[in-house]
Amino acid sequence: MWLGALERRLLERILAPPPKLLFRDRQLERALELIEDRTSFVVYGPVGTGKTTLALTTARGLEGVVYTSCASARTYSALRSKLLKRATYYVVDDYTMAVREPRLKELVRSLEPKAIIVYPPVEAYEELEGLKKIEMQPYTLEELEDICRERAARLALAVDDEDVKAAARAGFEHGGNARVALIVLAERTAANLQSYAAWRS
């Protein structure tokens, strides 16, 4: 019972956006330029490549940002109720998961300025035509190891280098997916804590 709660807390901490987004300097610089110019853009790439973190990192410190995830608000009416607020910037996450219909397409076209996060192929979304694009590539194995190491050190996780490498390998085997790597890191941390608790009792 306690392990389940511990795993949930660990996962929340480990998956929380980091103070610095590693290996995305070029994309971050571009996104900051676009936000400064109040230009709308699309962030696209496979799952676990830092799309949401990039959008939230660039919007950090801005007043009046409206963030909406289509994973929880998928229909036109649900999204409309969240997106009708005036904003300095709209961030629409997981747009791939929205139930696309003409009214939703018009709503998304009308938002200015905005950052829309989608999985490829981005060309499938005609309502996003003409927007600037930022591509997020899958992470390499070495990058995933460094991401896991940074998270382990910053959060003082109960893991060793073998745990870090195993988590990175899992993410790499899932297409360079940092989210998978960090989930495995959380699982290994919880397992190590459980082993330690069993040893002490």
Structure description:
- It contains 8 helices and 5 strands, in the order ααβαβαβαββααα.
- It has 201 residues and is of the alpha/beta class.
- It folds into 2 domains: 80 residues, no CATH class; 111 residues, Rossmann fold (3-Layer(aba) Sandwich).
- The chain has a 5-stranded parallel beta sheet with strand order 2-3-4-1-5, sandwiched between helices.
- The two termini are 17 Å apart.
- 36% of the residues are buried.
Q: Which terms would index this structure?
A:
201 residues, alpha/beta, Rossmann fold, 2 domains, 8 helices, 51% helix, 11% strand, elongated
Summarize the structure.
The protein has 201 residues and is of the alpha/beta class. The chain has helices at 2-15, 25-36, 51-59, 76-83, 102-110, 141-154, 161-173, 178-200, and strands at residues 41-44, 65-69, 89-93, 114-118, 132-135.
User: Average pLDDT value?
Assistant: 92
Distance between the termini: 17 Å
Largest sheet: 5 strands, parallel
Succession of helices and strands: HHEHEHEHEEHHH
Strand order of the largest sheet: 2-3-4-1-5
In percent, how much strand structure appears in the residues?
5-15%
Total of DSSP H or I helical runs spanning 4+ residues: 8
CATH class of the largest domain: Alpha Beta
Low-pLDDT residue intervals, each spanning 5 or more residues: none
Q: What's the CATH architecture name of the largest domain?
A: 3-Layer(aba) Sandwich
Structural class: alpha/beta
**Large-scale geometry:** elongated
- Total beta strand runs: 5
Q: Enter the CATH topology name of the largest domain.
A: Rossmann fold
Question: Fraction of residues in helices?
Answer: 40-55%
Number of domains: 2
Q: What's the CATH H-level superfamily name of the largest domain?
A: P-loop containing nucleotide triphosphate hydrolases
**Radius of gyration from the alpha-carbon trace, in angstroms:** 19 Å
